[in-house]
Design a protein that fits this description.
Elements: H1 4-15, H2 22-34, E1 42-45, E2 50-53, E3 80-84, E4 90-94, E5 114-124, E6 128-131, E7 140-143, E8 146-158, E9 164-167, E10 170-172, H3 179-184, H4 213-216, E11 223-227, H5 232-254, E12 262-265, H6 309-324, H7 326-340, H8 347-356, H9 360-363, H10 368-376, H11 383-391, H12 396-413, H13 432-443, H14 450-460, H15 467-479, H16 486-495, H17 499-504
Parallel strand pairs: 11-12
Antiparallel strand pairs: 1-2, 3-4, 4-9, 5-8, 6-9, 7-8, 10-11
Helix pairs in contact: 6-7, 12-13, 13-15, 15-16
Protein name: C9orf3 isoform 11
Organism: Pongo abelii
Keywords: Hydrolase, Metal-binding, Metalloprotease, Protease, Zinc
């Protein structure tokens, strides 16, 4: 009988193996996963997390270094979404949550709570299993009709990055592939000899690509594209050609790809993806919900406003790039990625490093405090953007929309029964982007009559427009309780990807 002390010593030696023995460590972990357990651990689940504890453990060092979790998904579970793909075949994927991006264990962990993982997934042989692992897994037949898929990571990661998707997907490949493409995208499997210390890293030890001379020059990492078979043509015509130049551009701007491969999955239309929070060092858990236009925070109702953080973040970075100049800004980004790769950091760290690495004359009264105040701790459009809008000349297309908005406001103000015949308004034909802008302006109106809304729908055939236009149209329907068009809202929720917004607005 192996004593608990000896068993713990073995595990400690296993987890402290140096990075250049990562393959050996991985094999040992695989053996551990098949060994008899040391007893069950106590655990609790709440809405957004799995909490594991061990009786008698008072400090972190007393807690197990390696945990095995047996997990079975069921349709009534909330950590995954069971749905159908574009071909009508069943599929399942980790759903987006207000806490963190579509993780199997969504949580807001402290920066030290990171770990490596291995996962073996069993599924019917006709299904493909994709996970956020480092390896390009291939199925292994267990028995007739059942396959096993094995994924792992060697880089310690937050639990909120652990994702899975299972479906009847097909790997998309170019019809013709040149020898140069094959050479560029060939498999990259680092050996122990590959790890040469190019520089000193600040993260915990793991087989880091930033210390691998071959990896640092790899512009295009191996990648796979999966989609329903009905989308084969679209993938071959468009998507497959876009990925290599995008990967190359990312390498030219940011430097070494931190991961050795990329899987791209074409998800169903009901995949929620609006403004979900990403893993961050902030462990308060006060992250905002999907980008809905409501004023109450979904998890913390005491908050009086809500941030559409991805959108505001984009405009903040755009503002900084414009203020500093592309050359200075992109040079800093590359240095930032190299300095902080493999770590979770605060936005203050990013901004502080930015200000320390730019010339004094380009700071122009910028500070971490005023950036936070103007961009991250205030509701609405940040002041710098408001000034930019006021100073910038409005383009012709936007002016045309404003003219149409004025017409619709006039129509809405007319009495139902007019005493004398008035000249009918003639509305211009608008592009889809112009329609979005028009409807957003009309959303600012306190009241729109059913007659006006019906005329809007008839004039622009709103029920036949793209999802962006119909999204705004549904907001108008909801705001003004236009019951005649509720079928449009029902259709939108069933067919498009932003149902979460209307769930929060009380339609469902």
């Amino acid at each position: 009988v192996v004593s608990e002390e000896f068993r713990n010593q073995i595990v400690r030696e296993l987890v402290t193996l140096p990075a250049n023995r990562w393959r050996e460590q991985l094999d040992y972990y695989a053996c551990c996963s098949q060994a008899p357990g040391c007893g069950d651990l106590l655990f609790d689940t709440d809405t957004w997390s799995l909490q594991i504890r061990k009786t008698g453990a008072q400090t972190a060092t007393d807690f197990p270094h390696a945990i095995r979790i047996w997990y079975k998904t069921k349709p009534e579970g909330r950590s995954v979404t069971w749905t159908s793909d574009q071909s009508g075949r069943p599929c399942v994927y980790t759903v987006g949550s207000p806490i963190n991006n579509r993780a199997l264990f969504p949580c807001q962990e402290p920066p030290v709570a990171m770990s490596t993982w291995q996962a073996t997934v069993r599924a019917a042989a006709s299904f493909v299993v994709l996970m956020s692992g480092e390896n390009s897994a291939k199925p292994t037949q267990l028995w007739e009709g059942c396959s096993s898929w094995y994924y792992y990571v060697t880089m310690p990661m937050p639990a909120s990055t652990f994702t899975i998707a299972v479906g009847c997907w097909t790997e998309m490949k170019m019809e013709t592939c040149s020898s140069n493409d094959l050479a560029t995208e060939g498999p990259f499997s680092p050996s122990e000899a590959d790890f040469r210390h190019v520089g000193v890293c600040s993260h915990t030890e793991y087989p880091c690509r930033f210390q691998n001379a071959s990896a640092t020059t790899q512009e295009i990492i191996p990648h796979r594209v999966f989609a329903p078979v009905c989308l084969t043509g679209a993938c071959q015509e468009t998507l497959l050609r876009l990925i290599p130049p995008c990967l190359s551009a990312a390498h030219s701007v940011l430097g070494t790809h931190p991961f050795s491969r990329l899987d791209v999955l074409i998800v169903p239309a009901n995949f929620p993806s609006l403004g979900m929070a990403r893993p961050s060092k902030d462990k308060t858990g006060h992250t905002s919900d999907s980008g809905a236009s409501v004023i109450k925070h979904g998890l913390n109702l005491e908050k009086i406003f809500m941030q559409v953080h991805y959108l505001k973040g984009y405009f903040l970075l755009r503002f900084l790039a414009k203020r500093l100049g592309d050359e200075t800004y992109f040079s800093f980004l590359r240095k930032f990625v190299h300095t902080f790769h493999g770590q979770l950091i605060l936005s203050q760290d990013f901004l502080q490093m930015l200000l320390e690495n730019i010339p004094e004359e380009k700071r122009l009264e910028l500070s971490v405090e005023n950036i936070y105040q103007d961009w991250l701790e205030s509701s609405g459009i940040p002041k710098p953007l408001q000034r930019e809008r006021r100073s910038g000349a409005e383009c012709g297309l936007a002016r045309q929309v404003r003219a149409e908005v004025t017409k619709w406001i006039r129509v809405n103000r007319r009495p139902r029964k007019r005493k004398r015949r008035e000249k009918e308004e003639v509305f211009e034909k608008l592009l889809p982007d112009q329609l979005v802008l028009l409807l957003e302006h009309l959303l600012e109106q306190k009241t729109l009559s059913p007659r006006t809304l019906q005329s809007l729908q008839r004039t622009y055939h709103l029920q036949d427009q793209d999802a962006e236009v119909r999204h705004r149209w549904c907001e108008l329907i909801v705001k003004h309780k236009f019951t005649k068009a509720y079928k449009s809202v029902e259709r939108f929720l069933q067919e498009d990807q932003v149902g979460v917004i209307f769930q929060q607005m009380g339609i469902l």
